[in-house]
Model the fold of this input.
Amino acid sequence: MTDNMIAFAGNPNAGKTTLFNTITGSRQHVGNYPGITVERKEGSVQYKDNKLNIIDLPGCYSLTAYTQEELVARQVLVDERPSLVVNVVDATKLERHLYLTVQFLELGIPVILALNMMDDVRSKGITIDIPALSQALDCPAISTVARSGEGKDQLLDQIIDTSSARAGKWKPLKLSYGPDIDPALDKMEQIIADNAFLTDRYPARWVAIKYLEGDENLHEQGEQSAETSQQLIKIADDLQVHCQKTLNSFPEAIIADYRYGFIHSLLRKGVITMPSVESRLDITDNLDKVLTHKVLGPSLMMFLLYAMFQVTFALGDYPMQLLEAIFGFMADSATAIIPEGHLQSLIVSGIIDGVGGVLSFVPLIMIMFVMIAFLEDSGYMARVAYMMDKVFRIFGLHGSSVMPFIISGGIAGGCAVPGVMAARTLRSPREKLATILTAPFMPCGAKIPVFLLLIGAFFADHRPLIMFSITLTAWVMALIVAKLLRSTLIRGESTPFVMELPPYRWPTVQGVMIHTWERTWEYIKKAGTVILAISILLWVAMTFPSQTADQVAVFDSQREVLEQQLSQSTDPDRNQTVTAQLEQLGQQQSMEALKNSTAGRMGVMLEPISQLAGFNWRTNIALIGGVAAKEVIVSTLGTAYSIGDSDAGESTSLAMRIAKDPTWSKSAAISAILFVLLYAPCFVTIVVMARESSWKWACFALIFNTTIAFALATLVYQIGIRIA
Ligand code: GDP
Ligand code: MG
Done:
């Protein structure tokens, strides 16, 4: 019995993952490559006495390190030395997909070509002469239909044959790149071989080609033998100047031309026969006439995205409420079982409420990801990106940034946690980062109650108008800030929209389910670890230092007096008043305790500054708590304002209480709305941001967003109180 590592590689949308799922079934493991957010998927299969460990490499178009995915794919091949690569290609786009194949062959690693989507090939009336192709490329080729499992056994047989025949030995293919490049390549190859420069990892000629292509990652690796590296760079630079002068082109482009030329001529030699006339109307083309139509396309897209978002929240509400009820029940039980004190408070407020608050989002996230996976697998998502690309590009974003924005609350009421996670569909790290950093500006569902509260208190007559302006402000700010970041801190070329539009397909149930579960599971894992830790930390900040014995004694004695009155009096009216006073006393005590805690002291301490934007210390505590979860803002304000109210008998709404408070005003309300809209993301979002980018950027968002929010809030408030 042998233990074999096999890598699945190919262009995005070739059907790699589908094939991988078909072959490995449920025996899969998903993780991340260390330090970056590219997913690492591994699985295994037992086949005829052989155990095959399969790794599904990220999709890539080339092996030059243009993107993280390409770099990762290459590193796995070189460092982990799988015994062979199964190169999955979309056989309906053979010419384009073989470009990557040629690069595997040039690297020399044993390759098996999986000609996937053969069902589409047949239905389009194309014929492919597989033996001829296999012979021309000098590598085995198997036809497959990943979705139905056709060709699976032949592929597995071939894997076993090839891995024993080649025994992992690399055999680089040598292509000619024409009279200008070849001499330079030969010279470089010689230098590389003589100095054993990186030859423990790569074939000599391949290193030379990468130097000509200006591969930065390889330059970095070469720095250890700086002298050789310099020599190679010099030759590459000279050649570049030469090519520029003689051919008005770059070595990189010429190399690509020759590769395509090689593929083209090979396919022409009777390998592919296209149908003489377009035998069948192409469904994809017809669909695209409508779905990406200039006017119809964007309108349909808006409708679809809006509907999807409505469905997510409509369907998600029930299971979410159920989970909340379950956690509520757990909290109640814990309260009943554990004696009152810090332990009870830690378990109930810190752990159950904290982690429960996070886990109750799971249904929402699952439903949303089912729909995203469906749109992605069907090929529609690529069209959305394609349509939005022109506009978003102006702001340094990418067409695929739309989805994260909308999910985060771009149409009001989303959530930045899944929104930030949805930014995974972005392939370029810079645009992904800009999207992640700006998506939390959107008016998420937890901010809405704050807006409704303040609008109710001060602008009750203009609800729709103000809500609309808030949403508009969020988009405008997100785009402006994205532009700002992309022209300063995350400056850099935007990635060209190379993504080709894949044909429309019905997604498979298995594919959608696996995609959904992978993402959901990652979220659940987080709740159990990082979020648990942070919940506890926040609980500590809002609990300690606790009140001194003296402070507690004051409340206790007051409570005793009231309780005594209650036990002695029989007048029901009187009793009601006393009960209300008791309740008020309790709230006052918790408010005092909160004011005394670390978070409370911060609120008081910040008051001199926060007053610039019109926030008093109570608002400050609410806003600090809002970093834990935006929902906390309203509840904390609620506690804060239920106290100083003398006529506790009449229940007045929080909005009315705030409206009556002289430290509030219309200007303060607008300022607070702006601040809540834009300031630090809540901590779950921050954790997710850190996971999707890095802690450095997550902390940046915390500080940067709060600064922008405060500056804007202050500006508006200061102008407001002067003109009001
Ligand atoms: P990857 O990007 O290479 O991992 O591609 P996926 O496995 O995600 O597949 C992309 C799309 O092609 C999905 O919608 C699959 O259902 C579909 N697909 C995969 N293999 C086949 C196939 O053999 N025939 C057809 N018609 N569709 C396929
Ligand atoms: Mg895939």
